[in-house]
Structure formats: structure tokens, C-alpha cells
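Good morning,

Attaching, inline, the C-alpha cells for the sequence recovery test we're adding to the shared suite. The designed sequence is right after.
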């Protein structure tokens, strides 16, 4: 689940690619953006470095990683996963005027809309703006709690004999994700069993699986219930229930539902006078515009 940097540098030397993309559906550890970017920095025609942060956009910063500070040229991402907004996407660049790839960025800006995208979906843009305000206001606490919860969850699953993927020396995960090995091609069946017990997860092909239909894994994310107030000890309680479901095929639907009912108020968001103040600021900005 971690890139072999030395082997990657060998492949870059061998193939001299025009584009290097970081990003995957199972993101447990930071990507070696700085190591790769530093290696190619002085090449005459160096490759473009892009990081697809679809899953981890809401974790950008000192608690996970900051790809632009580490040498990435382009970052793409989803605004509805760890970044807690509506379903949209972003493309951002580190290509200032006069920089190596600035002409490419100008093409991206001019061709993204109208062009590759036919509608800019104003109906969800205001929701994204509100979510961005909240992310800026709460991201430090939110990010740290998400990562702490994921690591506590992973450790507790491991202690309860569930096969947890990732580097154990790093707490199995450094993001919001926890990956579980369910057994050879048992991912769909275990995901269905979890759903019957009020735990919604998706089955996931692991690196050694032949195809997604052969999926041996389960992918879990803690960010949603972190926003609803769950902390490390709460995820440890959930891990005990899930281990009973996964290993012993036990019926824990009522216990899971009872645990869920303890967390009904969303956090890391504006409320009361702070919400009213933010709404007023947005209204003033739109009226001035």
C-alpha cells in the first residue's frame, strides 16, 4: 500500500514519462510526491506531476500532506468525501505565470468550461462555498480527529482478530481509510453481511486480486461519523461489533443501531450566531457582485 520509491525512480529513468500521476482508491499513507518531484526537478523536459486527491482532499495540510508544497504541479479532487461538501470536483494548479507548465494551465482553464464540462451546476456551488467556509474554520481539529479515529479503529479491529491492511508500524493508516481483508473473493459477501447489520461499507479489490469481481477486501472510512461526534473509544466499540459480524457471522444489527443513535448532531459546522454571520457575509458578497 506504499510506493516503492527506488523502483519508481528506476521506472521513471527507463520510460521518461511526460506525466506522473499519484492517486488510488485505497489511500492509507502519504504519497512520495517530494521524493519524485525532487528527482526530476532539474530535467530539461521534466514530467508534469499530478496528484489525484479524490479521497483525501479534506486532509490536505500538515496532518497528512500538502502536495503543492512538496512539488506537485496539478491537484484534482472530489469535494464530497473527506472534504465535506456536495458532489463536485476541482482542478487546481501550482503553475504561476512564467513557470514551466503555465501554458498548459491556460489551456486547462480555457477548455474546462465550456468544453469538457457542459454545465457548472450553480445549484450545488453555494453548498460548496458553505462547506469551504466550514472546512477553513474547523479543518485543524477535524483532520486530526479523523486520522486519530481511523488509527484507533484499525488498531481495535486488529486486536479483535480482523485482518487489517496497511503498515502496522504506522498504525495501519494515516488517512481516514481502514482496509480489511475479508478473505479470498469474500468482499461482496462480507459487505452484504455488514449492511444487514447496519454498517454500510463497500467491497474492494486488493492489490493481489485478479479483478473487482474477485474482491477480497472491505474499504471503510471514518470521516462521516467523525463529523457526527464519534471519538477513538467509540470506534473501538464499533470495531468489537464489526469483528463479531465479520469473523463469527453474529447478528449485531440492534447494537450497531443503538451505537448510531448516540451520535445525531453534526459537528465541525457553523451553527447559531456564527452561522448567521457567515450567511450574512455571503449575502453581502453576492449583492456586491
Amino acid at each position: 500500500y506504499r510506493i516503492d520509491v527506488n523502483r519508481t525512480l528506476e521506472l521513471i529513468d527507463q520510460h521518461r514519462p511526460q506525466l506522473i500521476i499519484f492517486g488510488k482508491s485505497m489511500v492509507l499513507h502519504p504519497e512520495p510526491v517530494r521524493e519524485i518531484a525532487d528527482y526530476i526537478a532539474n530535467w530539461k523536459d521534466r514530467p508534469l506531476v499530478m496528484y489525484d486527491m479524490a479521497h483525501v482532499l479534506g486532509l490536505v495540510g500538515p496532518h497528512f500532506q500538502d502536495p503543492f508544497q512538496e512539488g506537485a504541479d496539478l491537484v484534482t479532487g472530489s469535494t464530497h468525501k473527506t472534504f465535506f461538501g456536495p458532489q463536485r470536483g476541482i482542478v487546481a494548479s501550482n503553475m504561476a505565470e512564467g513557470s514551466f507548465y503555465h501554458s498548459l494551465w491556460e489551456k486547462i482553464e480555457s477548455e474546462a468550461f465550456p468544453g469538457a464540462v457542459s454545465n457548472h451546476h450553480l445549484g450545488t456551488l453555494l453548498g460548496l462555498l458553505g462547506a469551504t467556509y466550514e472546512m477553513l474554520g474547523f479543518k485543524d481539529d477535524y483532520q486530526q480527529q479523523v486520522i486519530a479515529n481511523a488509527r484507533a479503529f484499525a488498531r481495535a479491529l486488529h486486536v479483535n482478530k480482523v485482518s487489517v491492511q496497511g503498515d502496522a508500524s504506522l498504525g495501519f493508516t494515516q488517512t481516514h481509510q481502514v482496509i480489511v481483508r475479508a478473505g479470498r473473493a469474500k468482499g461482496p459477501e462480507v459487505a452484504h453481511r455488514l449492511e444487514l447489520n447496519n454498517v454500510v461499507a463497500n467491497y474492494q479489490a486488493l492489490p493481489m486480486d485478479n479483478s473487482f469481481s474477485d474482491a477480497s477486501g472491505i474499504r471503510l472510512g471514518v470521516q462521516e461519523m467523525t463529523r457526527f461526534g464519534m471519538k477513538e473509544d467509540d470506534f473501538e466499540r464499533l470495531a468489537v461489533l464489526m469483528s463479531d459480524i465479520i469473523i463469527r457471522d453474529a447478528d449485531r444489527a440492534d447494537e450497531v443501531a443503538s451505537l448510531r443513535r448516540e451520535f445525531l448532531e453534526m459537528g465541525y459546522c457553523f451553527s447559531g450566531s456564527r452561522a448567521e454571520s457567515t450567511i450574512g457575509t455571503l449575502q453581502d458578497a453576492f449583492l456586491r457582485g
